[in-house]
Amino acid sequence: MADELSAYQQAFYSQVGERFEGFQQMRGMGAAFRADGAVITTTRAAAERVFQNPEIYSSRFGPICGAHRPLIPIEIDPPDHHLYRRLLDPMFAPRTINALEPQIAALVNELIDGFIADGGCRFDSQFAVPLPTQVFLALMGLPLADAAFLLEMKDGLLRPGYREGLTDPVAVEALNQAVVVKVYDYFQAFVDERRKGPLRDDMMGQVMNGEIEGRRLTDEEILDACFLLLLAGLDTITNSLTLFYHQFANRPDLRMEVANNPDTIPSAVEELLRWETPTPQVYRVAVADDELMGCPVHKGDVVVIDLGAANTDPAFQPDAGELHFDREPNPHYSFTGGIHRCSGSHLARQELRIALREWHRRIPDYWMKPGTTPAWPPGLRSVENLHLEWKL
């Protein structure tokens, strides 16, 4: 078991670089196995069984990022989960998101205009961070001037202590909790201020004025939904972009496939999401005893669904260890699965597709700047210090 646990830890805790071989080692331990007091899934079939049985595998596993209450709707079980999704899902419906294409394309080109003549950029800070941040703030109806503050709060929730160089667990916990309080205070003040003015139809207004079972959300419910929207809106798409372009910078064949044939971009986005899996794992807690693919599960056990392992399972996709932009169909779990499938997946896909289309239309050939070394921060998978160069 010691060797198995060591192999698991190497694959599970490392979010750096290519991970297919690590996932293969994990699958060698079984479709589900016990480690560190939790049950880990390693295959598509095991992940699917957890997702399809929310009555056994509860989402009330929190707290997420030190939040004081369960986040809405990701930590809410049925039947209440369905009520919240009925309110929130229309905000991210395809028709709503598709209407944003001109606005997103204009923003992408505005960002590119700012550095294209320089022959290079730091991709993460000059493109991958500002693009989804500005889209998110506009959708929510939050002031663009608050971007730096909210990005700092996001890092304090998802990677507490990383920017500050803190390693002491007590100091990290204290910093995280201070940030949690600031986030609640920020959204409460914003809600209070918005109530003084006319109704607005942005996402914040829809959350504040929407109803479930004939009643408005309480302030606590509004804050718990906003807490999750902050995490998802300011991190997931940034992470995906940095992972995609790190791959493109190291794989000229993939880069030129997208640049020379823009029609492949939708399938390229799906395949890169499958391969990179920016959100590596999601969690559940067992509320009853069960047997998961031969592994005993006891009431109270934490279950870790490894999405990266599920997405690269050769039993589900025979050539799962290779990147193919013509893979059809491609039902990956990068947006999780079951009742908690990500509401924002349409927005994420739209931003990623437009970014790839507009960037490669204007900068088709680029590479990693010699002498620079990308960094892989802790937490969700992403790449920083990604310096790209090109000649036009």
Automatic annotation (TrEMBL):
Q: Which GO terms describe its molecular function?
A: heme binding; iron ion binding; monooxygenase activity; oxidoreductase activity, acting on paired donors, with incorporation or reduction of molecular oxygen
State the family named in the UniProt similarity comment for this chain: Belongs to the cytochrome P450 family.
Q: Which Pfam families match?
A: p450
The record, for SUPFAM superfamilies, names: Cytochrome P450
| Gene3D superfamilies in alphabetical order | Cytochrome P450 (1.10.630.10)
Matching entries from InterPro entries are given as: Cyt_P450, Cyt_P450_B, Cyt_P450_sf
Name this protein carries in UniProt: Unannotated protein
